[in-house]
Design brief:
single chain; mainly alpha; three-stranded parallel β-sheet; about 35% helix; globular
Length: about 140
């Protein structure tokens, strides 16, 4: 039987990145074109559980992978490729459009995240002793 590739299939940032990688490999969409391709329409943890159960493949973010306990025979095949960088952003919602938000607190949090202290906290965050995220506010 074909080797499984488990996709989140949920229109998340990880799913969008996966589709870009397939497109760069010459497949506009693997659905119905690649034996073993499965969309779960689920979050990253459940997608990894399915990939583990099928001894298949999945694209995942570093933080989820480090925290994931049901790895089975799964292992990292590719990491460190600049094309795999998945930046996270912080932004404050416009209070004129969404008056129910706590703008002052959100602004304070966003300002802290891009400060030296916030970037240090991002850099120092570990899962199982490994760095989970890499600060990039200076870029």
């Amino acid at each position: 039987s074909p080797v499984a590739f488990v996709s989140r299939g949920d229109k998340s940032g990880t799913h969008a990145a996966e589709l870009r990688y397939w497109k760069s490999a010459g497949l506009d969409t693997p659905v119905g074109r690649m034996a073993g391709y499965r969309e779960c329409g689920c979050g990253m943890g459940p997608a990894l559980n399915i990939a583990s159960a099928l001894n298949g493949y999945a694209l995942t973010d570093r933080g989820t992978w480090l925290a994931f306990g049901n790895r089975g025979a799964l292992s990292i095949l590719v990491e460190g490729d600049r094309r795999l960088i998945n930046p996270y952003s912080v932004m404050v919602v416009n209070p004129a459009r969404h008056p129910h938000v706590t703008y002052t607190s959100a602004k304070a949090f966003a300002d802290w995240m891009v400060s030296a202290a916030g970037q240090a906290a991002v850099s120092e965050f570990r899962i199982g002793g490994e760095q989970a995220f890499f600060p990039n506010a200076a870029r």
